[in-house]
Amino acid sequence: MSESDAAPSSSENVAAEAAETNQTNNAPEKMEEFAEPDTKRRKISTTVKIIEDKRYKLEERLGGILCCAVCLDLPRSAVYQCLNGHLMCAGCFTHLLADARLRDETATCPNCRVEISKTSATRNLAVENAVSELPSECQYCNKQFPRNSLERHEETQCEERISGCKFSRIGCPWRGPLHESRQHETECTHPNRTGAEVMDALQVMDQKLADERVLYDSIFDLLAFEKITFNDLQLKPYRTDEFVHRLFYETSRFSAFNNQWVVKARINNSQKDPTQSSERDMTYQLILKTKATTTLSIYYIMLKGPFGDMKVQPRIYKHDFSELENEGPYMPLSLPDTAECNRLLAAKTINFRLIMFLSSK
Ligand SMILES: [Zn+2]
Ligand SMILES: [Zn+2]
Ligand SMILES: [Zn+2]
Ligand SMILES: [Zn+2]
């Protein structure tokens, strides 16, 4: 099948390589070898003010230097470089290779136009390690942590992270910062409710579990399809030229089932001015770009993929694509909350994996 040798197969290798190097961390040794940072450190230790100022500026500057030359974001996984040393994050790198393959051209560095391929481009471990040491801010407590430990902090250590009451299973709706939950739990009235009163809460929970069960069963059914393909894609932001500028996202073309497709996404379903609204969500649409000779019955699922970090819940959508019906409807991207949506908007590009299943019925 022609689709099986497109971008996805190559991206798997990239992901595996990325996992490998996370373990080979030789940064600490290297740091000791350099004399320069020491002298600098001594100089700026004279006043606290200067330390803060300098460090802030240095980090900002390093961020600008170590970012991906294509999407300008700080890379989250592997970093590649062309023969002339221009840096690309793994998402942009696979994207360039896939784009070139679709156009039947050789990929080139967007900066210097030198040819790039899986063999000519190399990893840059120094940059990968340096980026993982750059500070980034915890979304709950606003303190700074090295990037490589931020996720663990936010998920398991931060005292400000949002948690629920331990009696949520019997219906307590309380949610708040973790450090307030102990106080709440001592005062919570839910443990004193009768069995009859907690039945409603249990039923809601049962229903939720049943829904999840349906989702997983459906995924296993889809995995039994004959034709399955996946693509690791990038949504890039664009603005319309209308009087009120609107932000939307689009991927470049990709191939699946011998046809070409794109994915579009938008915020709050193109509400006039999403900045007026505190609630934010994203919806996306799958579009068939080539002429369909027959109706293509497609099931599709969006996942974060190997280069993305979006916290999307798996949801299966289906659309019958034909010559007249070449655009699927805008379907919700199942994000946990507005904060996650805003985090995606803040990034320059959104990496994701789209799995498509072609129904033969
Ligand atoms: Zn990039
Ligand atoms: Zn280059
Ligand atoms: Zn925190
Ligand atoms: Zn409670």
UniProtKB/TrEMBL annotation:
Residues 1-28 have a biased composition (Low complexity). It comes from the Eukaryota. The gene is LOC108568525. A zinc finger (TRAF-type) spans 134-172. It comes from Nicrophorus vespilloides. Keywords: Metal-binding, Zinc, Zinc-finger. Residues 134-172 form the TRAF-type domain. Residues 68-113 form the RING-type domain. Belongs to the ZFTRAF1 family. Residues 29-39 have a biased composition (Basic and acidic residues). The keyword Zinc applies. Transmembrane segments: none annotated. Coiled coil: none annotated. Residues 1-39 are annotated as: Disordered. Gene3D superfamilies: Zinc/RING finger domain, C3HC4 (zinc finger). The keyword Translocase does not apply. This is Cysteine and histidine-rich protein 1 homolog.
